[in-house]
Amino acid sequence: MKFRYLIFSIIAIFLVKPVLSADWESFKAKFMKNNEYIVDPYNNYRVTSEAQGYGMLIAVLNNDKYTFDKMLNWSINNLQREDKLFNWHWNGGKVIDKNNALDGDLFIAYSLLMAYKTWKDEKYINLFNQILPAIKQLILPILWDNNENILLIPAKYGFIHENEGTITLIPSYYIPFIFNEFYNYTADEIWEKLYNYTLNRIYSIRDIPFSVDYSLFSKNICKVTNYVDIDTYRIILYAYLDENVDIIRSSGTFQKVIEFYKKEGYIPIKFFLDGTPQTKENSPYCVYRWFYFIYNDKKLLEIYEKNKEIDKNNYFCEALDLIEKGLKRGK
Question: Which residues form the signal peptide (predicted)?
Fold first, then answer.
């Protein structure tokens, strides 16, 4: 009887408190303060809405409700605005920039939806239903010649240029697997249209730049920046998580970058598309894994493994690696 009681007690412990992955526990020990917010050691220990969205999603993927709730409450109390979107930059006990960054808003909303599906707690879906309409206000559909362009305005302020008749778009803010999940839950066709526009138009731009301008006069996309960087490289991971990474290879989205890598042996953290001399600064290790997804070059994986052992304070790479593992594990 004592042995049986011991077995049941052990099972009960595991049911009450999930066994978290060692990688997630290590991540929290290095980058999380008070189980509430994630800091970026490479950027003056700042906190961003993006990092909070990443962390909350990883908490769900690791069945860590305690940490999720702590991060959620901190984000609401310190970052959330009256319009339900989130200030993107906090540091030193105060908000540094009151503008939002829509990718952060998207990841926070997505994590709430995933939390509701995982733990069936109504408060999560209620918060999701408050944030989603605010995000939708930054979606602008434009019908032209029987084609619908779905413009995702990156933030509330600074991206609509009325005098020029343009709107600046950031391709890495188009995240197809999130749009697909929103559509599956809400059945709102705007998310399906945004999903299709992401894959068929945004991710298919040859030699994609960091940002593009959309002209409200010509109803067309124009390149406006002459560089791509680690933020833009994220779309490889996002396409991979959506199982549509072939679109990037076939469209030549990062063709000039991979040509540079084959010649020089590394991927710059910032790559100039106009042929300007490239920075000698190497990309973070996770970028090499993403490029492996589309080009299947084992040397890229070798660089990933080598640099991962050296770079121990990169919250960005560790977070996105954990998201990749968690979402792929769930499929």
Answer: none
For 215-240, the pLDDT digits (tens) are 999 999 998 999 999 999 999 999 99
Structure tokens at 138: 């930054």
CATH of 1-137, one of 1.20.1560.10, 1.50.10.10, 3.30.450.20, 1.10.268.10: 1.50.10.10
Q: Which two tokens stand for residue 285?
A: 């290790």
Number of helical (H) and strand (E) elements in the chain, helices listed first: 14, 13
- Report the C-alpha gap between 223 and 188 in whole angstroms: 30
User: Which has more confidence, 246 or 146?
Assistant: 246
H-run or E-run covering 255:
helix 255-264
- Which of 87-96, 143-152, 234-243, 303-312 shows the lowest per-residue confidence on average (mean pLDDT)? 143-152
Residue 16 CB contacts under 8 Å (≥ 6 apart), including other chains = none
Pick from 136, 47, 159: which is nearest to 83 by CA?
136
For residue range 150-195, what is the model confidence (pLDDT) as tens digits?
Answer: 999 999 999 999 999 999 999 999 999 999 999 999 999 999 999 9
Distance CA 303, CA 6 (A): 47
295-320 pLDDT, tens digit per residue, is 999 999 999 999 999 999 999 999 99
Which long-range CB contacts under 8 A does 241-247 form with residues at least 24 apart?
A: 241/177, 241/323, 241/324, 241/327, 241/328, 242/176, 242/177, 242/180, 242/199, 244/176, 244/199, 244/203, 245/293, 245/294, 246/294, 247/199, 247/203, 247/204
With both helix axes pointing from N to C terminus, report the angle between 230-241 and 176-186 in degrees, rounded to the nearest 10.
Answer: 50
pTM comes to 0.93
Q: Residue 61 phi/psi, 5° resolution?
A: -65, -20
End-to-end CA distance of the chain: give it in Å, rounded.
40
